[in-house]
Amino acid sequence: MMTDLIEHLFAKAFDNELLGQMGDATEITLAGMDGNRIAFTTDSFVVSPLFFPGGDIGELAVYGTVNDLAMRGAQPLYLSAGFILEEGLPMETLGRIVESMAFACRRAGVMIAAGDTKVVERGHGDGIYINTSGIGIIPAGIRIGPANARPGDAVLVSGTIGDHGIAILSVREGLTFETQIQSDTAPLNGLVNEMLQTTPDIHCLRDATRGGLASVLNELASASATGIEFDETVVPIRPEVKAACEMFGLDPFYIANEGKLVAIVPGEVANDALLAMRKHPLGLNAAIIGKVVADHPGRVTARTTIGGRRVVDVPAGELLPRIC
Amino acid sequence: MMTDLIEHLFAKAFDNELLGQMGDATEITLAGMDGNRIAFTTDSFVVSPLFFPGGDIGELAVYGTVNDLAMRGAQPLYLSAGFILEEGLPMETLGRIVESMAFACRRAGVMIAAGDTKVVERGHGDGIYINTSGIGIIPAGIRIGPANARPGDAVLVSGTIGDHGIAILSVREGLTFETQIQSDTAPLNGLVNEMLQTTPDIHCLRDATRGGLASVLNELASASATGIEFDETVVPIRPEVKAACEMFGLDPFYIANEGKLVAIVPGEVANDALLAMRKHPLGLNAAIIGKVVADHPGRVTARTTIGGRRVVDVPAGELLPRIC
């Protein structure tokens, strides 16, 4: 409810056609720049703990913003980094995080172009909070946006879901599994490039972060005024993630990912897109999971394991706080 | 010392020619955009208290980033806003801050184009922290940068100094003066436009925020490898700010401003620049306060009230924490 209130507050105060795009990044046409478009996005990272299996807040802060740009089909180029440090944060910890960001920038092919550091007193922060904003260039001809899904389109996911959320949860709860579950935090711009070479006509891209696959599908259905149907038996999930979800009583479709995307493409190129994804290391487990329909606009339904069909709603509030 | 350590850490990890510019905003030439340049900057705001005489964290967050862009001669266009909210922050407080940001955007002529909100538990924040990043376009022909000061140039300041820092300090200390000291928080892009129309050949611009006038002059002297001499008797200071500084034992030259800039222009156009500044409401008290010299490169000296000359050093650490 608080989220709704806040969104309403912001929408009312900052109402403009750009914020209304509701994408991961905002598409901007700069005056005097030959009609070229840039993508612009911002994200703050408050993940707890700072270090977790498969990554840390530094990598997350770089990949999170890189991915928001990539979801517009943009070539991510420049990032800013704003740090809010709590007094007493060990310099060694900060050093590890900064090194990790530098590594992540090299991996994603982006550059930190602007920075800022503020220090707050002990007890007024939580070690470190990081904001990254990012700029990318959208190549001519690319038209990717949440409102572009059309009946007949196919819905794809780039790999196993739920890994990030369960990795964080496991550390918090002090649980160990036979196989340690690793966060999937990764830069998706390379995978998107691979896809765009084969299928330039991608309709929608979205990374399934907070709220997981279910939230993303609902957002896309709602923004496009279409229905989405998927088959929950074909969504890739690691057995250990499935087991952890059962233990915690969580639905994996609502668990956050930090290196997985949902793509909606015209039905006739679905297989090409799938093959392109599988050619990339981050898309090895990609799958076609469903389709866009004209029925029940704004709603998402799933074919269940027992053959029935259920409505997959938006999550009621944040399931796991401080997941990113 | 911690600041030095952090800067060293960041410089080592993120070393690139863009961060090396050391300006308020970074100048970027985007590929495929006809050689046009954009300015990009980021700033986090952790000011305490959230509301103070003359402004609040919302206005500060907008103007701070607008001013960083304006200091590159850029036309500020788009801002992002990243909020870190502490659980329990009254919605009414958030509402006031957001309204204030919206007002500030209208005043500065910019648009919030991207946003993000994170919530942290009670005791892990301080009500609200705001990050704003900004994009502006640098008009052709404008070459403003901290390294551009040349011997013979004149040094100007756009108005009274120390207002913001003393306004914040007064609230914190619960002091009242006969005249309440107001923060000077304001968008400087209009003033810069006025100046550029008369004097397109501005060499350096810098808003005198954290560390005040003394820090800015030292940064410019250092970046340009020139000396700067100013006359402390001609620097505009409100009598009540001067009185407060005496009471607290503070040097007004080190006190933060949030709506004042330092300009360095060729000596022969100093008067034109001064007149242009005085034509704008935010430059009514502008003054020529000194000059750039070939002597003592990297050093700043002041002619004192008793006719002597003293070295004005960089401040040793942050005088007032959480001033912005």
Q: How would you briefly describe this protein structure?
A:
With 324 residues, chain A is of the alpha+beta class.
Let me know the CATH homologous superfamily of the largest domain in chain A.
Answer: PurM-like C-terminal domain
Q: What is the CATH architecture term of the largest domain in chain A?
A: Alpha-Beta Complex
CATH fold call of the largest domain in chain A: Phosphoribosyl-aminoimidazole Synthetase, Chain A, domain 2
Order of helices and strands of chain A: HEEEEHEHEEEHHEHEHEHEEE
Tell how many strands the DSSP assignment of chain A holds. Answer: 14
The oligomeric status of these chains comes to homodimer
Order the strands across the largest sheet of chain A as they lie in space: 9-11-8-12-10-13-14
As a whole number of angstroms, the C-alpha radius of gyration of chain A is 19 Å
Shape of chain A: globular
Helix content of chain A: 25-40%
Number of helices of chain A: 8
| Arithmetic mean of pLDDT of chain A | 93
CATH class of the largest domain in chain A: Alpha Beta
Low-pLDDT stretches of chain A: none
Q: Main beta sheet of chain A, described?
A: 7 strands, mixed
Helix/strand structural class of chain A: alpha+beta
